[in-house]
Amino acid sequence: MNKIIIISFMMLSPLFWRGVGGEASAQGKGSYSFNVDNFPDIYGGKEEMRRFLHDHLVYPVEDMKRKWEGTVKLNFVVTKEGKTENIKVVESVSTDVDKEAIRLLKLIDWIPSRKEGTLVNVDYNLNIPFSVSKYKKNVKERGFDTPLYTDIPIDTSLNIYETAEHSPVFNIPDKTFTEFVYTNLEYPEPASRQNIEGNVKLSFVVEPDGQVSDIKILNEGVAAGCNNEAIRVIGLTKWKPAIRDGKYVRYRMSFTMNFSLKNNFKDNSNGSQNTWGR
After folding, report:
1. Based on the domain organization, do 217 and 166 belong to the same domain?
2. Residue 122 above 80 pLDDT?
3. What average pLDDT score do residues 5-20 get?
């Protein structure tokens, strides 16, 4: 039987309910208490979560007209495989807003928790805020409100494919995918100062709306901010989604990003590496 660790909570950010100091505590019959080595997280941390919500959240039309706002608080299990199970709405905004929050959560793959080095299931919480004014700002920034690709059906199974009749096509004018990456990559100042170089091997999912999700680092990556910068740049990319069996589908891709001080990189002195949701 898979065990589930229950995290005791306090609010540490607008997005996460987390345990205090890594402490897990009993929360009911059949549960038990002991420390975990790490909380569940996603590659890129809070900044990537902000980008993900910025790009993927779709406000239910009628609720936006009524200006129904608030924070949906979700409780769920992050399995040792990094998947989400047993989703419950702890605090509701409305039926449709709750459904959108659950839809977003189901798109996320997690870095699971460990207990003494062993992967374990953990009970966890996520807060997803819904603000009409902030959503309108996000829509203006990202350039769309409703899904861009509606000419054929969308696969709603949440399956992620690696083969399809039509693979995703990079959809930013005047540049190839590789050109776009290296035009926008900003060498992190700590890495530059310490002469740190190397390759970050990533995978990511192109969603049926052409946005990206589930960005992961497949190797050890590169220290001093390079891993997070690689995730940030992949998050900027836009695609025409894959087509399989006559439907737009989720499709996993991979890319290796090279950090070399011999290359010319965009100046990062304006701090644009951390701007999502600000």
Report:
1. yes
2. yes
3. 42
